[in-house]
Amino acid sequence: MQPACPRVRSTAPRPLHLAHWGLLLLAPLASAGNLQVAPILLEFGEGVQAQALWLENSGDQPLHAQVRIQRWTQSNSADVLEPSQMLLARPAIVQIGPGQRQLVRVLRPAPFSAGDTQEQAYRLLVDELPATHVKPNQGLNFLLRYSIPAFVLPAGASPREPGSKAAADTSGLHARWQLDPGLLTLTVHNTGAQRVRLSQLRWLPENGPPIELTPGLLGYVLAGQHMQWTLPLPRPFPLTGTLQARLNDAAIPQPLRSADL
Predict the structure, then answer these.
(1) Which of 41, 152, 251, 252 has the most CB within a 10 Å radius?
(2) Which residues contact residue 114 at a Cβ distance below 8 angstroms, ignoring those fewer than 6 apart?
(3) Residues sharing a CB contact under 8 Å with residue 12, sequence separation 6 or more, in sequence order
């Protein structure tokens, strides 16, 4: 997980647009970042109504943490988070002693339906809360937030094996890109029933070695959605070639199928 830029909490009820996922470092607060979370992805397959999320305190002082669940959609090539009751965290606020672990059960109250043909996406926002025993003159530390993806699978779909390097089904994935001086604009449309995770994007020129564009995670394209990214390009840059990316952590980068969107 990669740290993102510091973010300011918002108490407004409007949807929250986020650009980066994983471990988020919030504005400096009087608390040590000792919260560890596992696993880093949850899936609810058919018949599964609960999953386990473990919170661990790696520090030498008690900590408090809060788990909130947000519905995750995409609109206008942006990620959108909104409060949801379709998944529930129990307990939602915990105190964890030094070196201890706490189980949080993530529940799906609604039963599965054969009519659920598209995957539903959520984000579990796990915040380490400010410690009340730390005085302001003890210095500034960063509070942690984890953003854990959770997916309710469509009917008939099976959970993916953790760490699987199998090639992803990309039949529903279509891409279009435009090269401008110093910039690449990439639009990816996912017509499939499940999300696609893109990482290690690279340009494969007709002649010469591949050119790495994003060494890590580029982002997700959720089921039935499209996303657009604008990326800087090195110069000089060969204009003839094709794009490749690792899709859902497949071991071998796969070409992005070009199509008019």
Answers:
(1) 152
(2) 155
(3) none
CA–CA separation, 217 and 20 (whole Å): 9
Compute the distance between CA of residue 70 and CA of residue 81 in angstroms, rounded to an integer: 6
Contacts of 243 by beta carbon, 8 Å cutoff, 6+ apart: 175, 177, 186, 201, 202, 203, 204, 255, 256
Structure confidence by residue, pLDDT tens digits, 150-206: 999 998 898 987 666 666 567 899 999 999 999 999 999 999 999 999 999 999 999
Extract the tokens encoding 141. Answer: 């530390």
Other C-beta atoms lying within 10 Å of the C-beta of residue 245: 24
| Strands of the 226-232 sheet, one edge to the other | 173-180, 183-190, 226-232
CB 247 within 8 A of CB 170: yes
Q: Encoding tokens for residue 209?
A: 């070695």
> Could you give the dihedral angle defined by the CA atoms of residues 24, 28, 30 and 32, in that order, rounded to the nearest 10 degrees?
40
Is position 4 within any domain?
no
Q: Judge whether 164 lies within some domain.
A: no
Does one domain contain both 103 and 59? yes
One-character DSSP codes across 172-197: TEEEEEEEETTEEEEEEEE-SSS-EE
Q: What is the CATH number of the domain that holds 46?
A: 2.60.40.10
